[in-house]
Amino acid sequence: MNTSHERRLVLQQNPDILKGILRGIEKEGLRVDALGQLADTPHPQAIGSALTNSHITTDYAEALLELITEPRARVEEVLQELADIHTFVAGKLDQEIIWNQSMPALLPAEKDIAIAWYGKSNTGMLKHVYRRGLAERYGKPMQCIAGVHYNFSLPDGIWPLLNVCGDNLQDQRSNGYLALIRNFTRYSWLLMYLFGASPVLDANFLQGRSNNLDKVDDDTLTMPWATSLRMSDLGYHNKEAQAELQLCYNDLDTFVMRMYHAAVTPWPDYEKLGTHRDGEWIQLNTHILQIENEYYSSIRPKRTTQRSERPATALAQRGVEYIEVRCLDIDPESPTGISEQSCRFLDTFLLFCTVQDSPFFPDGGYCQDSKNNFATVVREGRRPGLMLTNQQKQSVSLQDWGREILESLLPYAHMLDQALGTQGHTEAVQAQLRKLDDPEQTPSAQLLNHLRETGLSFHDYALQRSREHHETLLAHPLPADKQAAFERQAKDSLQTQIDIEAQDQESFEDYVQRYERNLIPPEVENS
After folding, report:
1. How far apart, in whole angstroms, are the C-alpha atoms of residue 68 and residue 149?
2. Where are the chain's structural domains?
3. DSSP class of residue 70?
4. How far is 242 from 220, CA to CA, in rounded Å?
5. How far, in Å, CA of 206 to CA of 466, rounded?
6. How far, in Å, are 27, 83, 443 from residue 146 at the CA level?
7. Closest Cα partner for 343 from 98, 80, 88, 99?
8. Cα angle vertex 308, ends 305, 314, to 5°?
9. CA-closest candidate to residue 526, choices 309, 222, 318
């Protein structure tokens, strides 16, 4: 079975296997006060411990909430859980709301942006000091950018069915997910055109840095044709040190080896900083990456880790378990930041990426054309006549290539609809065709047009919509049993953190050294 057509036919003959697809969502959102300014309050105790509550934590900044669902077999289930978590949190925020935009609210001076705190345990301090390092390396404003992460896994039975190469199921699974990632890398520019929703930012975000952005108004800046400033070099981007790291998705061994190399190799600028200042930790180490998760990418191969286990070691030992899509902007029109239509499109797109032919990237896994396409679309995706470079090194219009991809998605949408008893996947793909026909239908264009029509600044618009979403959530209280379950989980998580702190016996310095030793060299791991 060597062609995507043959693999697709096999799936069409076995539609029930698609019922085993799981998806989970991690949605970030800043806590802000009534004026839309970054909240300066600690993580609320009423929603539990940021260290140990599995559904409600923080990401980089103390005010950056991260709300996490379980993996679910149906889109309706995962969205309901996400809505329930949002509703519980909204009811516990005192005079605060969740900022429902990817680009931040009004930020204070950088020194006054609080870094996430997880308590005084060694585990909590490791998370906190890692974030101190991120602040030193990239600046605190970038730690206030928010997004939606979409976790996606396929049932184990699909890999032999698709005849994925590998000596055992673990190898088949890893090779299958890496093939998915290669295709995602080729085609993810389309996601940024269709779903990018951060074409503007508040001038305050730049904190005086020079820029060549256009003014929408005195407080709001844009690139005229941008889809996602969050995913541009104004938002999440890899600095010079990370630019040296070219991860390879051709095979897992090479991927893990390059990740290991970056996590143990010092970088001169970080060596100048050192690990301590005035007797306090400012970063975990002086390496290109403090830990593997520091590498910014639009998609990651993932494996659930055990306590103190390093992500690269987990991948080397047990292979890829699922993938994490990281390039999605918050949908400002949804109270939970992502819509059902977007989820159904993503499932279809990721299944397409799994089954389509996925040749290895040349030149040691470096995919410059794909990276250029992605960067072009986030900065000027709605520019009339925009041209991209396809896999045949041909120049092709965004609209023509986009239609070709969407038409290729339709058979996969039909398969998912057949398996799950819905028409939602087909409708989701068809809805995107309208955005290709008319760029004004894209979320980025609609947000810009709304600002221009109303005269609202980005800040005022985002605050208005965030308040409306907050009220929508509060208008639909949780059933008593769900509310009680969240209350119990919050209370239990606080006690769990206390227990962890009480159990720690070793010094933090020894703990960090032991954590560093847990990164096993791949050649040792594979011997």
Report:
1. 9
2. 21-353+438-525
3. P
4. 30
5. 22
6. 8, 17, 17
7. 80
8. 35
9. 318
Q: pLDDT of 98-138, one tens digit each?
A: 999 999 989 999 999 999 999 999 999 999 999 999 999 99
Provide the pairing of β-strand 387-389 with 322-328: unpaired
Task: Output the six-digit token pair for 236.
Answer: 């999440």
Name 439's bridge partners: none
pLDDT tens string 211-255: 889 999 989 999 989 999 999 988 766 566 666 677 789 999 999
Dump the DSSP string for 227-254.
SBGGGSTTSS---HHHHT-----S-HHH
Separation in Å, CA 83 to CA 2, 52, 69, 113, 242: 42, 21, 10, 28, 36
Q: Which tokens go with 519? A: 């990164």
Query: What angle separates helix 398-420 from helix 4-13, to the nearest 10 degrees?
Result: 20
CA distance 421 to 440: 32
User: Distance between CA 108 and CA 11 in Å, rounded?
Assistant: 53
What value does the CA radius of gyration of the chain take, rounded to a whole number of Å?
A: 23
Residues in the chain: 527
Q: Which of 97, 111, 118, 98 is nearest to 51 (CA)?
A: 118
d(CA 419, CA 12): 9
The amino acid occupying position 522 is: P
Sign of the alpha-carbon torsion through 338, 339, 343, 345:
negative
Per the structure block, which two tokens stand in for 137?
């390396």
The pLDDT score that the predictor gives to residue 527 is 37
Q: What b/e string do you get for 220-239 counting C-beta neighbours within 10 Å, with b at 16 or more?
A: bbbbebbbbbbbbebbbeee
Nearest one of 24, 23, 27 to 328, comparing CA atoms: 27
Categorize the per-residue pLDDT at 171 as very low, low, confident or very high, splitting at 50, 70 and 90.
Answer: very high
Tell the residue number behind the tokens 């969407």, with chain if given.
Answer: 406
CB 516 within 8 A of CB 129: no
d(CA 307, CA 310): 9
Q: Which amino acid is at 382?
A: R
* Position 208 pLDDT exceeds 80: no
3-state SS class at 74: coil
CATH architecture of 21-353+438-525: 2-Layer Sandwich (3.30)
| C-alpha to C-alpha distance for 185 and 361, rounded to whole angstroms | 10
> Residue 32: which residues within 8 A CB-CB, separation 6 or more?
38, 39, 63, 96, 97, 98, 99, 105, 106, 463, 466
Residue 8 has pLDDT above 90, yes or no: yes
DSSP structure string for 303-330: -PPPTT--HHHHHHHH---EEEEEEEPP
Tokens, residue 38: 């970054």
d(CA 430, CA 224): 27
Of 183, 131, 487, the closest CA to residue 358 belongs to 183
